[in-house]
Amino acid sequence: MARRERVVRMSVEQPLWRALTAYRVLTMGYAVLLFVFTREQFERPWVAVGFLAALSVWTLATLPKVAGAAGCTTRFLVADLTVALTGIMLTPLADVHAQSFDGPTLPSIWTAGSVLAYAIKGGWRWAAFASSLVAVANIVERGEPSRDTLHNVLLVWVASIAIGYVVEVARASERTLARALEIEAATRERERLARDIHDSVLQVLAMVQRRGTALGGEAAELGRMAGEQEVALRTLVAGGLTRTSHVSEDESLGAVVREVEEPDDDGPADLRALLARHAGARVTFSEPGTPVLLAPAAARELAAAVGAALDNVRRHAGEAARAWILLEDWPDEVIVTVRDDGPGIPEGRLAQAEGEGRLGVAQSIRGRLRDLGGSAELISVPGQGTEVELKVPRDARGKAGK
């Protein structure tokens, strides 16, 4: 029987919304009861009755709004805080002597619910804004605020900002946890696929390679191709860099099969992803364990220069040549070295090629690096292969970024 996994989406802030809903209902009832027991102290009780009636209707009607972040819109928050501030400013009108003693305002502690809604929705900055308006309204309502009034105002201000900050930290932790769970799930799926591929496809390719080599002739060529595909597939199974798969065929350097992700023009691109597609049976790619980030245009130009260097390996080093790509990430620059084990370049051959109009090295490699503010150095010793060292400054932007 197949095992089914159930994914449960956890939300650290949903309990806060439920608590806020209950708080608003309870504090609404508290404000009404407080007026009932002290109604003889009000010179204009009809003002208090009108406001508390409106407060009760508003609270009950907007319960769906505070049930989650989606319903708690900015327009609702502004309207809710306006109700609270109106109640505070109406307190002296309903009770002429309210300014002479530190009695509760008409909305009482219900006002804190409006501030908490700001904190849960927008974090500590929104909470600071809302609590500051409440503080100003309380001070204006008191006229000459006492120490107790200032103490209460400061308490609401600090508490709301603290809650808003905790909410922001909780959201960041939730995002980190969700990302970790996604990576764990992807890893488990990749391991499962690797087991299945190892038990089937890789074994078949290995068998074809052995039998083809033993038979010789055209079967040997078929065996060679099967061996290249086996190496490329093992590279893929071992774990590509990112999500989107690119498959290309290179007759001289072997099949290239790596998982890579196209860079996002809105943010830095990981150069490893662009260079990984060149890896194959005869091309070895060595990379750092952490992302190598460059501006997207610069990353694409540098990757194109590496591709041009590998093109030269295919054309001039022969089918049996191997190539190595080394990516180095330094604080102020990025260095990519492309090396092969071919026969090397005879002295004066590059100058002769430029004179004949063949500008592969001059334009495709050195030209690109010059536009990036970098450099390209070519070292070749006859009989010992060729090495191309590409250096790009960390702040390179490329043509698109100029």
UniProtKB/TrEMBL annotation:
SUPFAM superfamilies: ATPase domain of HSP90 chaperone/DNA topoisomerase II/histidine kinase
Domain Histidine kinase/HSP90-like ATPase residue range list: 300-395
Domain annotation DUF5931: ranges: 5-178
Segments crossing the lipid bilayer: 21-39, 45-64, 76-94, 123-140, 152-170
GO cellular component: membrane
The keyword Glycoprotein is annotated on this UniProt entry: no
GO MF annotations, alphabetized: phosphorelay sensor kinase activity; protein dimerization activity
Pfam families per record: DUF5931, HATPase_c, HisKA_3
UniProtKB keywords: Kinase, Membrane, Transferase, Transmembrane, Transmembrane helix, Two-component regulatory system
Domain Signal transduction histidine kinase subgroup 3 dimerisation and phosphoacceptor: from-to ranges: 189-241
InterPro entries xrefs: DUF5931, HATPase_C_sf, HATPase_dom, Sensor_HK_TwoCompSys, Sig_transdc_His_kin_sub3_dim/P
Name of the featured protein: Histidine kinase
Lineage per the UniProt record: Bacteria, Bacillati, Actinomycetota, Actinomycetes, Kitasatosporales
